[in-house]
Structures are given as structure tokens and as C-alpha cells.
Design a protein that fits this description.
The complex is a heterodimer of chains A (about 260) and B (about 375).
Chain A lengths: L8 E10 L2 E11 L4 E6 L5 H8 L7 E6 L2 E2 L5 H6 L2 E4 L11 H5 L6 E2 L6 E2 L1 H14 L16 H14 L4 E5 L7 H16 L3 E6 L2 H7 L2 E6 L2 E7 L5 H8 L3 H9 L5
Parallel strand pairs in A: 3-10, 3-11, 6-9, 9-10
Antiparallel strand pairs in A: 1-2, 1-4, 4-5, 7-8, 11-12
Helix pairs in contact in A: 5-6
Chain B lengths: L1 H13 L8 H6 L4 H17 L7 H26 L7 H16 L6 H26 L3 H24 L4 E2 L2 H5 L5 H4 L2 E2 L1 H9 L16 E2 H19 L1 H11 L1 H6 L4 H27 L2 E2 L6 H11 L11 H17 L9 H25 L3
Antiparallel strand pairs in B: 1-4, 2-3
Helix pairs in contact in B: 3-16, 4-11, 4-12, 4-14, 4-15, 4-16, 5-6, 5-7, 5-14, 6-7, 6-14, 11-12, 11-16, 12-14, 15-16, 15-17
The chains are: A alpha/beta (about 260), B mainly alpha (about 375).
């Protein structure tokens, strides 16, 4: 990957305390354009706190947070969004009863006309939605159909397409495949691959090493609020990754005990 | 219907690759379908059973007057329901706003215009309080506004006794507002000249002296129609409309997408209370007095009209024009039965059945539309 510029997002020694609880204890990571960084870690490792910090939901207690080399201090999710960091949450992305178009433009409706008659240009919205869906290979017969009619994978793709359309430089995907079946998962993974080729940085959070290994360029493993290490794909096998993620030894012992089925 | 067909052809022009969506699917996707079908059913029923005078101009006005007063509440209740909340205090709010309005006019001798503005501001404030309590306590709005149903009704009684020295009715409002310039906007009939002209042209029934039998359209009907159009436009065409659907559909997803959910909901509560105040002002000016039973049980009727109009109880889905038709169904049945041989006490039976049917139908349609299983 030809990265002439530095990383888009770089965090160094991020610490976050919730009262007396230390959620993040000096986490460092970075992601560049055209790269998929996979964030792995068991429950309680600090993945969600790290995502919340990156997406402006919580503010770090200390540490350095650079976006394109400039130090930032986000006060709201909106501020992170404006800086080009878009987060797609696993189940809170779409409203099933609303149309695809209305979901796509939710919170960022393009306006037309003067103030008492100012309205949303839904004709334009429908065209854009149909076009964007077409690009990612989802055949939307009618952008006015409810999102509830789409499959889980398609919904994730719509949410990602929305973030891309609105100019995200970095996509944070919070377990986008955890609730999906096999076919749906491959659809989402394929789309993540497409997004990378467009030159966006992707931070992909998952439990599933197999999904991670399929698309990621690098892996950062979190454990108990700290970075356990960052590995390029060429430096690590899927088994090693699995062991690192689940705390190494224990799982290996368990695996042997179960006859190597995990 | 013509509008829908136009839309389809426009879409075909834009992109010929897209298969046209069948008219039936488009219709099914409209939340107000049930209400329109219901209204047709009701009208056919009365065509067959009622005295033909029901469908005269005078008969229609008799139906539309109560329908419009309920409808103003129902449209606001529909918007609030789409936004994901209920307001059970609107009926009591009508009584309380009526008291505030009456006291401002009589006890404080305010001008009509001033009294109207102050009553509206006061109602908006009370609505916003409702909203703030619901938002900050995260209690269901059902229970918070149920509390206000009793609080406001009780305050109305106490306030009326205080204002009148022991009575539960405040009279003499008519004399205070006789000469007010703004009276015509909130009271009586509108378009009187047009009706005189229509009578001259022999287009409508008239008395032997040449005056029309129906002197005009009650102003409440015009308010009702205007609000229905405005609310429909806001819902379907504006950013605020999208935010209302989003806030009711899934507040978390909406917030993550940058929708100010709390502001939207607070605004809707204030709007609902203002609609109650508007009904209070119109009915108090018409009656020339206000009493403690004003708006009694209107909260249920408004919610029923909204549900018949296609609103889901869980929020995020519904229509204002549906509530418009829901309110007209309500008015047609309550008044229409007096034109038939049936006992008009069948009204409530009919209403309950209608509500049950509407809810079943809405659920069915929602599953169809969203592919929910």
C-alpha cells in the first residue's frame, strides 16, 4: 500500500478512567488510508471504550489523539463525524420502519427552498440512494421501501455506504458480522474490501478471528485495557491470533482438553 | 391517487432499469389506507341506512363541527405517537387551557389576542414540562401523562372555584370578546359571503328570504383542514418530519445519526398541548363559557382517531392525514347514528370494534411493509 502520508488516525498512550475503574491503560494504535486494522479482544478488553473515544462519545483522560497529524479533542459524536470518522454500530444503525432513503439521509437531509417552505429534496435523495445501492450491488427496486425489508447484511452495507457517501475518511465498524449468517457475512466482508480499495481507513472490531483474517491488513490485540501487540498479516497465523486473543495458554489447554475442536 | 400515479411515472423517467412498483404496493405502503377504507365503509353504511338529510350541506356541517375539534387533537396526537410518545393529558389540558383563557379574559380583563397568545404559551410550557419529565426520568410517557390527566383536571376544578367563587362554570366570556378583531379567526363561521353568493346562484339550499340555510363553514373545520395539510407536509417533506419518524422508530439510532431526539420530543409534547389549547379557545369562544368537564375523555378519542388513521402504538409509523380521516370517521359515526333508526348508544360499540379492527389491520400492514416476521 503506497502510503506517502502518515496515518489518518493515530492514538498514543490513551488512558480512560471511569471513576476508579481503568478502562483503557495506555492504548496505542494507528490506521492509514487504504488499510483495514482489525481490533481484537475479549469482553472487557476495552474495545468499546476505545471505539467510543475514537468516535467522540467519551473523552480520554489522557493520551495523544491525532487525526491526519493534528491533535484533536472531540466533544461530541457530531464533531468526530465532521472530522471524517464515522462509526457503524452493529444493531443501532438503521430504523426498520423507515424507508431506505430516509435512513440513508437521516440527520443529514439536504434542504431546498426558502425558510417557511424549506423542505427535503426527496427526489434527489431517492436518486442518490438508488445510485449508491447500485454501486455496492444491492438491487433496490424502490428506495422508498422500508429498511425492514432488507436482510441484516444489506442493512450493514447500507449503513457503511451512508458513511462513505457522507465523506468518511475512517470507518469504525463495531462487530458488523456478529449477528449475520455465512452468506450475509461474506457480503459485508466483500464490501469492507471495496471500501479499503477506495482509500478509506477501516477499523474493524470483531470477536471472530476468521472474519478478521479474511479482510484485515494488521491486527491490534487488546487485553485488560492495554495493547497486547500489533501484527501485520504476514507475521502471524490465524491460530496464533486466536490464542493471543483469548489469553493464550488457557485456551490452548482447553483446546487440547476438547480434542482440538476450538 | 392521481399523485401516486404521477410519482410512478416520474420514477420511470428517472431510471428505466427500475421495475415499476405496483400501485397496490404503493397503496399498501401508505399508513392512512385503513382510515380511507374505513371512511368509505362508514359512508356506504350510512348511505344505505341513514336519512338522506345527513348528506345535505347542513348535515355535513353538523358532522364536521365535532369531527374538526377532535381532529385538531388527533393530528397533534398522531405526530406525537409517530415520535414515539403518548399524551393522555390532552383532554384535561383542554379544560385547563379553557380555564386559563377564561380567567385571563374575565378576571384579568385581557384583550382577546393577548389572552390567546398567553394561553398558547402557557400550554406549550406545560407540554414541554411533560416532555422533560418523560425524557429525563425515562419513564413511559403513558404513566407521566396519566398523572397529568388527573393533576390538570383537578387544577381546573380548583381554579374554576377560585375564579368564580365556588362555581365549576365560568360564564360571561362572550361579552368580553364581542368587539375583538381576532374573534373571527377563532369563532363562528367563515366564508359567509361565499355561501350567500352560492345561495344566490341556487347552488345550495336557501331560506325563502334568499339567505343560505348553512351560513358558512365553522372556523374549526378550516383550522382542522389547515393543520392536517401542514402536518402532512411537515411529516413527508421536511427535515423535522424525518426526525419525528426517526425519534419514534429508534431513538438510539436516530441520536447516533445526529438527530436531536430530545428537542424533537419536547417540541411534539408542546405542540400537542398547544393543539389542546386551540380546541379550548375555539370551544370556549363558541360556548361563551368554560367548565370543568371540557375536553373530557378527548385524549382517548384523539388516540383512537390516530390509531384508526394508521399510527402504530409503538411509534415510528403513521400519518397525519390518516388521523384527519380517523377524526371524520369518529364524527360521522357519532352524529350519523342519529340519522338512522339505530339507537345512538351503539356508537361506543361501533367505536371499540373499529379500534380493534384498525389495530389488527395496522399490524398486518406493518408486517407486510417491513418484512417483519
Amino acid at each position: 500500500m503506497a502510503n506517502t502520508k502518515g496515518p489518518i488516525i493515530q492514538v498514543t498512550d490513551i488512558v480512560k478512567h471511569y471513576g476508579s475503574v481503568i478502562a483503557l491503560n495506555g492504548v496505542s494504535m494507528h490506521v492509514s488510508a487504504g488499510e483495514v486494522l482489525c481490533l481484537l479482544g475479549d469482553n472487557g478488553a476495552g474495545k468499546s471504550t476505545l471505539i467510543k473515544t475514537l468516535s467522540g462519545v467519551v473523552r480520554p483522560s489522557s493520551g495523544q489523539f491525532l487525526v491526519e497529524g493534528e491533535p484533536v479533542n472531540f466533544t461530541s459524536p457530531r464533531a468526530a463525524l465532521d472530522a471524517g470518522i464515522a462509526t457503524v454500530y452493529q444493531d443501532l444503525a438503521m430504523i426498520p420502519l423507515m424507508s431506505i432513503t430516509r435512513n440513508f439521509f437521516m440527520g443529514r437531509e439536504p434542504l431546498k427552498g426558502f425558510i417557511p417552505f424549506r423542505h427535503v429534496d426527496f427526489k434527489h435523495c431517492n436518486e442518490v440512494t438508488r445510485e449508491e445501492m447500485h454501486k455496492i450491488g444491492i438491487d433496490v427496486r424502490d428506495p422508498n421501501q422500508a429498511v425492514g425489508t432488507l436482510s441484516g447484511g444489506e442493512r450493514q452495507c447500507v449503513a457503511i455506504a451512508r458513511a462513505v457517501y457522507f465523506g468518511a475518511k475512517v470507518l469504525i465498524l463495531d462487530e458488523p458480522t456478529s449477528a449475520l449468517g455465512v452468506a450475509q457475512t461474506s457480503m459485508v466482508l466483500k464490501y469492507i474490501h471495496q471500501v479499503r480499495q477506495k482509500g478509506l481507513g477501516v477499523i474493524f472490531i470483531t470477536h471472530n478471528v476468521r472474519h478478521a483474517y479474511a479482510v484485515a491488513d494488521r491486527f491490534t490485540i487488546l487485553n485488560r485495557g492495554q495493547t497486547l501487540g500489533t501484527y501485520a498479516k504476514s507475521d502471524i497465523t490465524m491460530d496464533e491470533l486466536q490464542n493471543l486473543m483469548a489469553g493464550g495458554k488457557e485456551l490452548q489447554q482447553l483446546s487440547e482438553g476438547l480434542g482440538g475442536t476450538i | 391517487m392521481a399523485l401516486l400515479e404521477q410519482k410512478t411515472t416520474a420514477a420511470q423517467k428517472v431510471d428505466e432499469r427500475i421495475k415499476p412498483v405496483s400501485l397496490l404496493t404503493q397503496l399498501m405502503r401508505r399508513p392512512e389506507l385503513g382510515a380511507v377504507a374505513g371512511l368509505i365503509l362508514v359512508l356506504v353504511f350510512f348511505f344505505l341506512t341513514a336519512d338522506p338529510t345527513m348528506f345535505s350541506l347542513a348535515g355535513l356541517m353538523t358532522i364536521m363541527a365535532p369531527a374538526s375539534q377532535l381532529g385538531i387533537l388527533a393530528i397533534a396526537a398522531a405526530l406525537l405517537m409517530i415520535g414515539g410518545e403518548f399524551d393522555l393529558s390532552i383532554g384535561s389540558m383542554v379544560a385547563f387551557a379553557g380555564l386559563v383563557f377564561g380567567v385571563l379574559l374575565t378576571n384579568f380583563g385581557q384583550q382577546l389576542a393577548v389572552a390567546i397568545v398567553l394561553t398558547m404559551l402557557f400550554a406549550a410550557f406545560m407540554g414541554a414540562i411533560n416532555g422533560q419529565i418523560v425524557i429525563h426520568t425515562r419513564l413511559p410517557s403513558f404513566i407521566v401523562t396519566l398523572a397529568f390527566l388527573f393533576i390538570l383536571r383537578g387544577l381546573t376544578l380548583v381554579g374554576l372555584k377560585w375564579a368564580t367563587g365556588g362555581s365549576t362554570q365560568l360564564r360571561g366570556i362572550g361579552e368580553h370578546v364581542k368587539d375583538s378583531a381576532s374573534l373571527a379567526i377563532f369563532s363562528g363561521d367563515a366564508l359567509k359571503d361565499a355561501f350567500v353568493w352560492l345561495a344566490d346562484q341556487d347552488l345550495i339550499d336557501k331560506f325563502p328570504n334568499g339567505m343560505p340555510k348553512v351560513s358558512g363553514i365553522p372556523v374549526s373545520v378550516l383550522w382542522f383542514a389547515a393543520l392536517a395539510l401542514l402536518a402532512t407536509w411537515v411529516l413527508l417533506r421536511t427535515r423535522m418530519g424525518n426526525w419525528i419518524f426517526a425519534a419514534g422508530g429508534d431513538p438510539n439510532a436516530a441520536r447516533n445519526s445526529g438527530v436531536p431526539v430530545h428537542r424533537v420530543k419536547t417540541g411534539l409534547f408542546a405542540l400537542t398541548a398547544c393543539a389542546a389549547a386551540l380546541v379550548a379557545i375555539i370551544t370556549v369562544l363558541d360556548a361563551g363559557s368554560t367548565d370543568a368537564r371540557r375536553g373530557f375523555q378527548k385524549e382517548f378519542e384523539a388516540i383512537i382517531a390516530a390509531v384508526i388513521g394508521g399510527c402504530l402504538l409503538t411509534g415510528g409509523y403513521g400519518s397525519a392525514i390518516g388521523a384527519f380521516f380517523g377524526a371524520i370517521i369518529f364524527g360521522s359515526v357519532s352524529i350519523g347514528l342519529t340519522y338512522t333508526k339505530f339507537d345512538s348508544d351503539w356508537f361506543q360499540v361501533f367505536l371499540g370494534s373499529m379500534l380493534l379492527l384498525a389495530v389488527l389491520f395496522n399490524n398486518f400492514i406493518r408486517r407486510k411493509v417491513t418484512g417483519e416476521r
